Amino acid sequence: MTEKKPLKRVPELQPLSHDHHHGLQLCWKIRTGFSKKVPHERIKKYTDWFYENHLKPHFELEEKYIFPVLDSKNELVQQALSEHKNLRYLFEQKTVLEIYLLQIEKELQNHIRFEERILFAEIQQIATAEQLSKINSIHTRVTFTENENDPFWI
To answer: Per-residue pLDDT tens for 63-121?
Structure first.
């Protein structure tokens, strides 16, 4: 059996990896909500909050400062942009919640794994010290603040 080595992330990209961790927690919360038969409207209310407060700003940051490290025509960047577009669409849906929530859980998890394992690995190999410094300066190290108004996942 092949042992997986931990991913080494340059310090300037670590805050984005922390954001990704919270995104994976969202996926877990959606799965947990479904397993506990939580009404989909409650799960959707939380995912809407997470999207507005964490995911949208994260996507904007990546698109404006991280992805430009690679050429805009780079296939990895194109894939990430396409996935962002699809995730935005999924989060903005207000009907057929069961289908869209399950799709969000699946696609967000796959997207985060892609960025962490492939895209960010490529970016940190290519990024100059100046680019990494810029990334470091624009990403605030604000502690994640949980919305505990309705912790359906507990």
So the answer is: 999 999 998 899 999 999 999 999 999 999 999 999 999 999 999 999 999 999 999 99
Distance CA 88, CA 5 (A): 32
Question: d(Cα 98, Cα 83) in Å, to the nearest integer?
Answer: 20
Per-residue pLDDT at 136: 85
Tell me phi and psi for residue 33, to 5 degrees. -60, -45
- Other CB atoms within a 10 A radius of the CB of residue 90 amount to 20
Q: By the 8 A CB rule, do 29 and 153 touch?
A: yes
How many Cα atoms within 13 Å fall on the side-chain side of residue 140? 5
By the 8 A CB rule, do 108 and 26 touch? yes
